[in-house]
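Work Package 4 report. The design task specified in the project plan requires that, given a folded chain encoded as structure tokens, an amino acid be chosen for each position. We show below one input record used in the internal validation round.
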């Protein structure tokens, strides 16, 4: 793979470097925070050989690469002016509370996962060595190896403090100092002494902070506001001393008196709640979780469960969530293996086998996006396979006893404990259940190269041949090349035309269904009854107005006919705010048609007049 070329193509197709607020990566995905997700060409991205698929979780634009993601990420950083330092910048897009929480958790935990995964595997190896008598618990080697394995977990608040500070835009070293303070041996001993503790007359609740998650996240979130407030009111010459000094003096006591105990209590109740669910409805809970975990992974929200897993291990010594992830991965591997057994396409057969092995190793995106979801029925089979394995785990009470970063065969040491044998049996059940179900259900095979060549030789425009797209507004028709935006002028999103509006009204250009109404109200998507997919984008960069000066008259799912009112906008206010009003009308599924031709250019057009002909 040419990482330099791939990185440059990806940057172009996400709307250019200027559209990227920040980018990080996890095990298999590039995770972009874009200023405008509509500028990303998902169709062209997904057609890249290096890309397994794309996904939008909350406002985060994710590109699934697979095992090569670290190399692609490095090439993106090397070929652009982007850096991890941008991770703390605020996004211009509005997020709902749930999306914001998931974004924070993902952004905080993704950078530290290698440390947690490595330490977790070392703990598993130690447990395995002790079990088979290869290592004595009283040996010095055991003590040193245990320190290596336990260090990342005991000092987890320190790791999280640095990562959270980068996410919240505060000083990571001051954040580390906050984490170090609450883990100080003398303070830890005082909190564990059982004595009544106070600070300047305020009671300090005894709490344990080692290996905890929620207290430090809350502390650094508060610290980010305190630090910025102190920085704003402090003279420049005194910032170096005053800002960190007063941040520490305020945040650490606040953490010990209020935030820490609250976070610890929340973490305890969270762990108790999850464990109660599995102990009293273990079978149903595990079946549902194992059967739907692949859907959670698709959204990227599985990182939101990491704090719960860590709390479960810290509070109870075991966890039920990680086993469900294992079963889901085995289901994906089994379904992909069934495709290998049934497919007659030699190339796709090889891909299916390769991705099945990769999924067994804990990396499921290639199998999930490249094979199972593509064929649909195997994906359903993978979910059912995970659920069948979940039924076995629910009956036998399988749990994991070590936090690991890999939910595949390399992560098996996480199961070392009382239910190890049952855990291994369940993995086999999930794999073969998915294989058998997928094999019996069957699927529509991917055409061979000969079939593809024949298909390409046939006309493609039969579904919506001759369809006319009418004008959605009154104004002057212009070529897309005249739009001062590379995404539109370069036809990255598809072919079409642009209109310089004379009135602030947008009407429906076709009979069809509203498929997308952007939160910022500046754009919407329509799918016509004949299958044309249309985006009307009012103005350039108007996403930054966050919906101001726009009024939307429809919602997603509404059925419309030509001339129905869609959006009203205040032309003068938008111009006064410094934005162009030229409005691209794009056919985003251009590849379906032999031609996308404007009826007229450089002429005035009225609503419901013919604008574009699709053949």
């Amino acid at each position: 793979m040419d990482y330099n070329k791939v990185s440059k193509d990806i940057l172009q197709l996400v709307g250019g470097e200027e559209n990227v607020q920040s980018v990080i990566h996890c095990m298999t995905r590039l995770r972009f925070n874009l200023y405008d997700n509509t500028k990303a060409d998902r169709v062209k991205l997904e057609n890249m050989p290096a890309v397994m698929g794309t996904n939008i979780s909350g406002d985060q634009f994710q590109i699934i690469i697979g095992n090569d993601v670290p190399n692609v990420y490095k090439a993106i950083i090397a070929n652009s002016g982007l850096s991890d330092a941008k991770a703390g910048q605020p996004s211009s897009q509005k997020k709902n509370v749930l999306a914001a929480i998931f974004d924070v958790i993902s952004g905080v935990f993704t950078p530290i996962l290698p440390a947690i995964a490595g330490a977790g595997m070392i703990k598993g190896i130690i447990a395995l060595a002790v079990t088979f008598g290869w290592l004595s618990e009283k040996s010095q080697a055991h003590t040193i190896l245990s320190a290596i394995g336990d260090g990342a977990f005991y000092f987890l608040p320190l790791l999280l403090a640095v990562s959270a500070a980068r996410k919240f835009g505060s000083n990571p070293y001051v954040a580390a100092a906050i984490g170090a303070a609450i883990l100080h041996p003398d303070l830890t001993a005082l909190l564990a002494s059982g004595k009544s503790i106070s600070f300047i007359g305020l009671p300090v609740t005894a709490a344990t902070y080692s290996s905890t998650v929620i207290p430090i996240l809350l502390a650094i979130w508060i610290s980010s506001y305190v630090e910025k407030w102190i920085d704003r009111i402090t003279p420049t010459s005194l910032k170096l001393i005053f800002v960190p000094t007063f941040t520490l003096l305020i945040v650490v006591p606040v953490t010990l008196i209020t935030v820490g105990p609250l976070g610890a209590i929340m973490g305890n109740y969270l762990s108790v709640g999850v464990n109660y669910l599995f102990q009293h409805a273990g079978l149903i809970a595990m079946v549902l979780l194992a059967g739907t975990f692949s859907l959670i992974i698709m959204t990227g929200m599985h990182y939101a469960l990491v704090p719960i897993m860590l709390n479960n291990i810290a509070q109870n010594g075991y966890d039920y969530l990680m086993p469900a992830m294992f079963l889901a991965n085995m289901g994906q591997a089994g379904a992909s293996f069934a495709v290998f057994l049934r497919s007659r396409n030699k190339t796709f057969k090889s891909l299916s086998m390769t991705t099945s092995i990769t999924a067994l190793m804990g990396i499921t995106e290639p199998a999930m996006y490249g094979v199972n979801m593509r064929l649909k029925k195997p994906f359903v089979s993978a979910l059912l396979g995970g659920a069948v394995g979940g039924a076995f785990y629910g009956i036998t009470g399988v749990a994991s006893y070590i936090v690991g970063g890999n939910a595949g065969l390399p992560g098996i040491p996480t199961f070392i404990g009382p239910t190890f044998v049952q855990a291994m049996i369940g993995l086999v059940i999930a794999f073969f259940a998915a294989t058998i179900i997928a094999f019996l259900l069957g699927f529509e095979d991917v055409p061979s190269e000969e079939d593809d060549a024949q298909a390409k030789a046939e006309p493609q425009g039969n579904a919506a041949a001759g369809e006319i797209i009418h004008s959605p507004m009154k104004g002057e028709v212009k070529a897309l090349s005249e739009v001062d935006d590379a995404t539109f002028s370069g036809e990255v999103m598809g072919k079409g035309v642009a209109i310089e509006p004379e009135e602030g009204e947008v009407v429906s250009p076709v009979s069809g269904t509203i498929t997308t109404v952007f939160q910022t109200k500046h754009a919407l998507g329509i799918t016509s009854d004949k299958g044309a997919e249309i985006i009307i984008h009012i103005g350039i960069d108007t996403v930054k107005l966050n919906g101001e000066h726009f009024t939307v008259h429809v919602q997603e799912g509404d059925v419309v006919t030509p001339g129905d009112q869609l959006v009203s906008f205040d032309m003068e206010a938008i111009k006064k705010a410094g934005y162009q009003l030229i409005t691209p009308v794009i056919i985003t599924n251009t590849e379906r048609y032999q031609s996308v031709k404007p009826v007229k250019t450089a002429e005035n057009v009225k609503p419901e007049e013919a604008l574009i002909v699709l053949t």
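The chain has a mean pLDDT of 81. Validation will be extended to a larger panel in the next phase.
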